[in-house]
Design brief:
Helix content of chain B: 10-25%
Largest sheet of chain B: 4 strands, antiparallel
Shape of chain B: elongated
Strand content of chain A: 5-15%
Helix content of chain A: 25-40%
Oligomer: heterodimer
Structural class of chain B: alpha+beta
Shape of chain A: globular
Radius of gyration of chain B: 27 Å
Strand content of chain B: 15-25%
Amino acid sequence: MAAARCCRLKLRRPGLSLHTAAEAAVRAPEMTGPDVTAAPVARYPPVVASLTAKSKAARQRRVERWQATVHAAESVDEKLRILTKMQFMKYVVYPQTFALNADRWYQGFTKTAFLSGLPPPADPAEPAPALDVEALRAAACDCLLQEHFYLRRKRPPPLYQEREAVASPFLDQMVATLMGLLSAHNPALATATLDCKRPVHFYWLRGEEIIPSGHRKGRVDALRYQINDKPHNQIRISRQLPEFVPLDYSIPVEIPVITCKPDKLPLFKRQYENTIFIGSKTADPCCYGHTQFHLLPDKLKRERLLKRNCADQIEVVFRANAIASLFAWTGAQAVYQGNILWCEADVTRPFVSQGLNTLALTAQPLYETIEDNNVKGFNDDVLLQIVHFLLNRPKEDKCQPLEN
Amino acid sequence: MEGLNPCVPTCTAPRGPALAPPAVPQLVARGNRYPLYQLGNPQLRVFRTNFFIQLVRPGTAQPEDTVQFRIPMEMTRVDLRNYLERIYNVPVAAVRTRVQHGSNRKRDYRNARVKKPDYKVAYVQLAHGQTFTFPDLFPEKEQSPDGSPGDEDIQDKLLEEQQRRQSRDPRRGGVPDWFGL
């Protein structure tokens, strides 16, 4: 009996008994009658879904908790670390791919709408800058002849890489020369950084699937993708380019939705380091992208595709490269600024980068032939297109006078 | 058909069992060796190949331009491309192959393993934007309300004739056949 009394004493809760608590609750609204009634104080912890159960609500709560830790992180490096530290099997997306109809698939993965043709000029009222076309043409011809004629190579290029071995150094030289010549017209280029074959990585989640086999069979899992790209050249600036269309622009074109699994593309899964990288680390002031230049390998050149009955895939190859590379670069830039695309902190302002598939302007080749110290049939329009791309500059600079 | 060239150039030599060479040389037979190739030899050409392929319905959803085949194990993707282009005039953009392992797990009444044969599956993507869907081979037959003359009548008549042939002579009045009269 003594023991029972002790138990009863221990069981009694400290604080108010139920009776007194009810009296307090009844009295409380009487005291604050004329004023606005205060919200009832919750006496129990909030009723939420479980964290560890095998249910949709539990998964939702786990995902939201993870997203909250990402938002709560103070520096961008911490956010990147939390996003990329857990490794799982993910689809590896290659921008330069031989897969058929890759551009439609990539549009589905990246939710990109493709509008053909160049964007309209941002400021039609602004007068076109006075370009020294002769000097630009002379510089371009010089670069061409340097690689094709002046330079004597000791050993022949490796098998099936003849075009690449000549085009790659030419492109490097031309981009560097044009940047130098156009920095007078575009002050952004003077302070820009030029990267040659620097890696660009992006990791993102989109969509869900049911795991087909393994110890987690039957459970819902997010689909993860990674792009590891190496653009031939890229220019990064410290301020952002003006956008071509506003953020809430409704696209007239439909984004293709593919019903099959990504494996049918073919696309393969691998588990390795998740990286998000724009070409330099987060501390770099030049964290906004300006232009990327890509060179397609000889494996995907026109003649080889035509031999394989893939004449309609030539355009597709260029488009897929552009979509994937620019999505990766622009997405990585956005993440560097703290906007995590899939974590509901969607982009609050538009991010712009522009890419140029050089030698992709195959409908209009840059030149026809090179014969012994002479470039025949040089196409000025193509060069001017490249130049106009490079002349795009951030909005604030447009107010400044051209000559400083 | 114009442009139809049923000659199929071959690529690799299969490793089949060593057989005695037949009297009439038949190249590209399953299980035969190809003749040895040395630099400068002309391209080996085959006019009546022994490879036979089957078009199958895909188990999982495939993109519209993909056709699924079961092909012999000795056939390569280059062989299949030439086969479809030369014999059937089908433009092929890409071919991917894989070998499906046939189960060896089932056991018979003696506990000896029963092997289902392995086979090679090829996924062919058609060129020039062509698409293909596997047709429905067994569509549901729509039964008409009135007894209209059609295939069903013929089938019923055949069934009746068969039954009449098997039944005994009605003039015997139910007496069994072994009874002597």
